[in-house]
Amino acid sequence: VIITVVLILAVVFGLLCLETWLAMALWNGCAVPAVSVLNEVGFWQMWGITLLCNILFKSTHSSSKKN
Question: Could you tell me the pTM of the whole model?
Answer without folding.
Answer: 0.73
